[in-house]
Write a structure and sequence with these properties.
The structure is a single chain. The mean pLDDT is about 95. Helix 2 runs antiparallel to helix 3. The protein is built from seven helices and no strands. By secondary structure, the protein is mostly helical.
């Protein structure tokens, strides 16, 4: 991982540690693994939301306008959920066409990063809206998706900070 910001690195390290432990815990129990995968999916989505909001706040903080920064944080906190490709791209466009274009040049809507993020968000939503009966993702699946998502944070950090 080449995310530079210490806050984002710390959040990602927390997920890395949890994934490493979950692989051990799930190695002897497939059902436990599916439940852990669902739980970790929820955490990953939350970390992505938090880190994207954090990066936006860092960018807005450069203006030195506390009222604007507070407003942006509040609006993001209310509107920005389930960070999929379209919502991230749309959010960047609200700041500038250039930000959106730079994002699209590096992260494709049907690329590995975007499909991995959609899978994690989908797993989280399935848990929330369908329940635990149809959990199908393994910890290894979530680990693979997670590592494919990290470039999204790297690109956003490059654009915004």
């Amino acid at each position: 991982m080449t995310v530079k910001d210490p806050y984002i690195s710390k959040r990602c390290d927390e997920i890395e540690a949890l994934l490493a432990n979950a692989k051990v815990w799930a190695s002897s129990n497939e059902k436990l693994g599916a439940h852990l995968a669902a739980y970790i999916s929820v955490l990953i989505v939350g970390v992505m939301e938090d880190c994207i909001e954090y990066l936006i706040a860092q960018r807005v903080g450069k203006t030195g306008d506390k009222e604007i920064a507070n407003y942006i944080r509040k609006v993001l906190g209310e509107r920005f959920r389930n960070p999929e490709y379209g919502s991230i791209s749309g959010l960047l466009k609200e700041f500038s066409d250039e930000y959106q274009q730079r994002f699209r040049e590096k992260i494709s809507h049907d690329g590995s990063e975007s499909t991995a993020l959609a899978s994690i968000v989908g797993n989280k939503n399935s848990l929330a809206h369908v329940g635990t009966e149809k959990l199908q993702m393994s910890v290894d699946d979530v680990d693979s998706y997670y590592h494919r998502i990290i470039p999204i944070l790297e690109v956003l950090e490059e654009i915004l900070v």
